[in-house]
Design brief:
Length: about 475
Amino acid sequence: MRTSHTIEELDIYVWEGKADIVERVVRCMSSFDVDVIRADDMTSAPEGNASRASLAVISVSVISSGGAKLRDWQAHTGMPVIWVGALPRERDPAVYPPEYSHVLPLDFTCAELRGMVAKLLTQLRAHAAQALEPSVLVAQSECMQALLHEVDTFADCDTSVLIRGETGVGKERIAQLLHEKHSRYRDGPFVAVNCGAIPDGLFESLFFGHAKGSFTGAVGAHKGYFEQADGGTLFLDEIGDLPLYQQVKLLRVLEDSAVTRIGSAMPVKVDFRLVAATNKDLPQLVKDGAFRADLYYRLAVIELRIPSLEERGAVEKIAIFKAFIAAVVGAERLARLPEIPYWLADAVADTYFPGNVRELRNLAERIGVTVRQIGAWDASRLRRLIAHARNAQPAPAESVAQALVDRSKWDMAERERVLAALASNAWRRQDTAQYLGISRKVLWEKMRKYQIFDEEPETRESEG
Ligand SMILES: Nc1ncnc2c1ncn2[C@@H]1O[C@H](COP(=O)(O)OP(=O)(O)OP(=O)(O)O)[C@@H](O)[C@H]1O
Ligand SMILES: [Mg+2]
């Protein structure tokens, strides 16, 4: 499978069989930046080009002459296909993958072909956007290494896991990792549910499903999330947002390992691993009576806390930044550019990202797109992007008031962390900075921001 596309450029592979279509495709596409490649020699079945988007135009006559080879080729390239000619009445799903069932008549017009290519390009763009996810999970800092160690330790048990961490730290990423590392459930589904986004009144139907004809509009039977996750992992994101009455129902399912669809009297056994995540202080919610203590203990059999980006330190910030830059710019283009300049890495390290990895990713993407366009690390333009990120309001989706509350909580926690680090390093700034994994300058800025004063910094410093 290809991983990234440069969508501006397109390769069209034409496998014409008995039809006569290559010349027409060339003519229809002549005004675009498209290469048309004849591919009817089965021995040289195209594999696609990693740096260009590609799709295939295949005559249906090929199916009868080389069905098996065609299937191999499709499995190998995963390329979207436009079929030309009349399709056999019974579509064999192995030959025609449902997501790419694009068909043109044998006497297609240029407008029809271009329209269909444009539609497929949109799909390819969506795939390319997904491919932007760097496949590696960056974890170089000690605290992230410790976390991965915990993941390894707990991945294979069946008990529930509660993942805690600020917004954007990678809670879902870690949940997926837990799933992939579980020997029994990893071949099953990973069903992710955002508990904060369940419309009122739909909880039962979504989680428990319904039997056929159980209410007006319920045409067929429907599996709820619990059943969908059977044999795999159910990931309940934002679990702290689940209202109390829904918490009771969840608890019952966990205790009985069974669900009963709406309109049915027959409980169905379910077997899944539950991973929940929250950026809220669940023990506090329990104290406030907003979260059931019994459910909390049930969920938090194993608790994993994901460190904030700031805790992971400058080296890791830069490593994550580089990973996203490579994903956006593309390895080939990046290799033609000079190394990421020091001033840029420093500027990233010195930027505070309240939205953690997600926010760093957004900045890296904006920088990556700019660098890709102009083909250089243009200092003035990139500095502007960084300045803009620094001035931006955190978490635009949230209300400003909520964002301010979150931020001040974060600030208090961070002030505590800095103070504790200073104390345990005898107030030596060099050691403290190293201990926190930040530069001395950043430490100094933090001390100034949090009004942490040290009576005789220079004397102490020179002692160390
Ligand atoms: N260690 C990492 N290395 C590389 N990418 C990461 C890492 N951690 C997180 N990401 C990326 O950062 C983004 C945010 O991660 P994710 O959605 O898992 O965070 P989250 O904690 O669930 O966020 P939210 O609180 O908004 O739900 C994703 O694009 C994810 O792939
Ligand atoms: Mg999430």
